[in-house]
Write a structure and sequence with these properties.
The strands form 5 sheets. A 5-stranded antiparallel beta sheet has the order 1-14-15-19-18, with no helix packed on it. The chain is 13% helix and 29% strand. The longest helix has 12 residues, at 2-13. A hairpin with a 7-residue loop joins β16 and β17. It contains 8 helices and 21 strands. The two termini are 18 Å apart. The radius of gyration is 23 Å and the shape is elongated. By secondary structure, the protein is an alpha+beta fold. Bound molecules: the ligand Nc1nc2c(c(=O)[nH]1)N[C@H]1C(S)=C(S)[C@@H](COP(=O)(O)O)O[C@H]1N2 and molybdenum atom. The site of ligand MTE has 19 residues, from β3.
Length: 413
């Protein structure tokens, strides 16, 4: 353990361990009392450089030799970054195994796709965003109106509520968006007193039907204004410094940070004020189960916010070696949740016993993912089931259900 310990002491002297609490991992602390010592280390008064702010095992400078990747036993062959299927069934999966502290943004080319640019639209079509319904006088906002008011909206992660194992969980990506806050946009009209909900509708006509009726036509979601304002929802016009790509909703889309992708209406056409007893849309019904509703409520007001609860999973396993032998470096990602994560634990036995992992550098916003790292010394060869858990009390239905559990066969011992 000598060199692993030495590395901890080195980074601790830079103030890193105390900054992000990496010393929770007992493998970095041969004796219990040393953990207490590490905890007492005060961060430097000066701000850490980005490099220093990374964990010992989050950076590339860790004191061990990489021998190679250990594949997940549950991973199917996924053609990451390639668009497959048509219309509503079009999918492009992001390769999460390539995430690193230096690469936490997904490029526009690799950002996941769920539903292609509608083939019934002339590519690049522009239209006005209609603001109407129960309002005193409706308005239409031009693309230029939105561009003039566009501001940076920070890094936001989107995850499809149907994100699945056979796609390497690659229906999830994070990009830097720009756009106009929903609060500013809806202030352009005055709702009538009986209007309490906002219905966002996007263009959704494809000439090719979804295979097996997998996706139903109609892309709209109904929210309360409070839900949108609390989530800092915005109308995106730009993504990673470029205009919103066609497939991601050009000319504009809704983005609701912290909510599942199904609410992030692409090719947005209208925002309509409606009454509190408005019915749920076909899109809300289609995604009721995947957004953890109770049954399929008929009224929009009976839907709980389609938020992403705390989630986490391993994304990459590396076989590494130092002078004491071989071991496994587990790199994972954590996302979702209403609050910044205080700690995270990993089980390698399907959820019986957990140990704390080291959370890497805190993300630029709560709306995106964060890496974590764990040094694992499997006692023997065999099949292991890796799953994560947040502290008790944090809502994490999908973690509780083992949705993001990954399995791996260890055979190097
Ligand atoms: N108009 C329209 N908007 C839509 C959809 C759609 O089919 N049509 N799919 C939704 C779903 S289910 C997801 S997960 C996100 C995917 O956004 P992306 O393809 O830009 O990643 O868009 C949402 N917005
Ligand atoms: Mo989705």
């Amino acid at each position: 353990m000598g060199s692993r310990r030495a590395w901890l002491e080195h980074t601790a002297s830079l103030g890193w361990a105390a900054l992000i609490g990496c010393n929770q991992d007992e493998k970095w602390n041969a004796g219990g009392h040393e953990a207490a010592e590490d905890a007492a280390i005060k961060p430097d008064a000066r701000a850490p450089t980005p490099h220093e702010a990374q964990g010992p095992d989050c950076s590339d400078a860790a004191p061990w030799k990489r021998l190679g990747a250990i594949p997940f036993a549950d991973a199917l062959e996924v053609d990451f970054g390639k668009l497959r299927g048509e219309g509503w069934d079009a999918r492009l999966y992001t390769d999460l195994t390539r995430l690193s502290e230096d690469a936490l943004l997904t490029s526009n080319e690799e950002f996941y796709i769920r539903t292609d640019y509608p083939d019934t639209l002339e590519p690049g079509s522009l239209w006005d965003l209609e603001l109407g319904g129960r309002v005193m006088s409706p308005r239409a906002l031009s693309y230029d109106w939105l561009l003039e008011r566009t501001k940076s909206q920070g890094v936001v992660l989107l995850e499809c509520a149907g994100n699945h194992r056979s796609g390497g969980f690659g229906l999830m990506s994070a990009a830097r968006f720009s756009g106009v806050s929903v609060e500013e946009v809806i202030a352009e009209v005055n709702p009538t007193p009986d209007a309490t909900r906002l219905l966002f509708t996007g263009y959704d006509m494809h000439s090719v039907p979804s295979v097996g009726g997998h996706s139903t036509p109609g892309a709209s979601w109904s929210f309360t204004p409070e839900e949108l304002i609390n989530a800092d929802a915005f109308i995106a016009t730009g993504m990673n410094g470029a205009a919103l790509p066609l497939r991601h909703g050009f000319p504009f889309r809704l983005v609701v940070p912290g909510w599942y992708g199904c609410s992030a209406i692409k090719w947005l056409q209208s925002i309509v004020w409606e009454r509190g007893d408005a019915l749920a849309t076909s899109q809300m019904q289609e995604f009721a189960g995947r957004t953890h509703q109770t049954g399929t409520p008929a009224r929009a007001s009976d839907y709980r916010p389609a938020v992403i609860e705390q989630a986490a999973m391993p994304i990459r396993l590396e076989l590494v070696e130092d002078e004491h032998g071989k071991f496994v470096h587990v790199i994972g990602v954590a996302w979702g949740g209403a609050k910044a994560l205080s700690s995270l634990s990993l089980s390698v036995d399907g959820g019986n016993q957990y140990e704390a992992v080291a959370l890497c550098h805190a993300p630029s916003s709560d709306a995106t993912w964060r890496l974590w790292s764990y040094v694992w010394e499997p006692p023997r060869n065999g099949l292991y089931a890796l799953r994560c858990r947040a502290p008790t009390g944090v809502p994490m239905q999908r973690l509780d259900a083992g949705r993001y559990e990954r399995s791996v066969t260890i055979d190097y011992l």
